[in-house]
Amino acid sequence: MSVSGFRLFDGVNSGLERVLDLREAQHTLVSSNLANADTPGYLAREMPFGEILAAVMDEAVTGGAEELPQVGEAEVEERPADPGDLDGNSVDAEHEAGTLALNTVLYNALTAGVSRRLALLRFAASDGRG
Amino acid sequence: MAGISEVFSIASSGLGAGRTRLQSIATNMANARTTRTEAGGPYQRQVPVFETEDLAEGDDGTRGARVVVSEVMEDPRPPLRVHDPGHPDADADGYVLYPDINVLQEMVDLMTTSRSYEANANVVEATRDMALQALQIGR
């Protein structure tokens, strides 16, 4: 859902766009973890979401929008299995379900934010009559 | 961007694996006392084996993973020998070979399968919700 090259007036639009991409990447990992919740030896995949998000927002707000960090720069981590776990699978279904719900809500909030900013631009572009 | 459509494919692989497992459980429960099979001897318990199938790394550096049923194995546990001389399949000493199926174990498997199916169905629903919201951008 990338709107590449869409940069109007400041880094906030591209910042929002990048965070949408991040949420989508997070969604892929959560769905992989839930699909493999019963696969022996599968290790749950996670990314340090907070750290990447902080870096993205920091650069977006301070205007350094040219070089926003990508997810690939931060390694996707595998959560080690609990030694007591007989099948060597480290997926915690409750944790994943929580992440999934939160991720969906925040993704929807972000799309609402993007729409609101576009509405502002439309209003300005139509001399305040739109 | 692979994103949303990839997630649908991951979640549906989870749903498919759940259905295969459910099918094995149903077969095992139905055949818990089956003494005759085409291959001869009592029924052997079916066990589906799940395997992770890594997808290509996305341009955002994350790597999704589908789940596939690599095979449906036969449980290697030997059949139970039960003394039942009146049974038509009893041997010379009056023993019948029954499958070693624990109905309680199958019930627990059934419940975990149904929960994991539910979790994957939730992923589909959440993904659909997100995709619809994304389509509303700019409206």
Summarize this structure briefly.
Chain A is mostly helical and 130 residues long.
Structure description:
The complex is a heterodimer of chains A (about 130) and B (about 140). By secondary structure, chain A is mainly alpha-helical. Chain A is built from three helices and two strands, in the order H-E-H-E-H. In chain A, helix 1 runs antiparallel to helix 2 and helix 1 runs antiparallel to helix 3. The two termini of chain A are about 25 Å apart. The N terminus of chain A is likely disordered. Chain B has one domain. Chain B is built from two helices and four strands. In chain B, helix 1 runs antiparallel to helix 2. Chain B is elongated and about 80 Å long. At the A-B interface, helix 1 and helix 3 of A face helix 1, strand 1, strand 2 and helix 2 of B.
Overall structural domain count of chain B: 1
Q: Outline of chain A, from the CA principal axes?
A: elongated
Q: Spatial order of the strands in the main sheet of chain A?
A: 1-2
Average of per-residue pLDDT values of chain B: 91
Give a short account of the largest sheet of chain B: 2 strands, antiparallel
Largest sheet geometry of chain A: 2 strands, antiparallel
Give the N-terminus to C-terminus distance of chain B in angstroms.
Answer: 22 Å
Low-confidence stretches of chain B: none
CA-atom Rg of chain B in angstroms? 22 Å
Oligomer: heterodimer
Number of helices of chain A: 3
Strand % of chain A is under 5%
Inertia-based shape of chain B: elongated
Q: From the helix content, strand content and strand pairing of chain B, which structural class follows?
A: alpha+beta
Q: What is the helical fraction of chain B, as a range of percent? A: 40-55%
State mean pLDDT of chain A (0 to 100 scale): 80
Spell out the helices and strands of chain A N to C: HEHEH
The strands making up the biggest β-sheet of chain B line up spatially as 1-2
Total count of strands of chain A: 2
Low-confidence stretches of chain A: 1-7
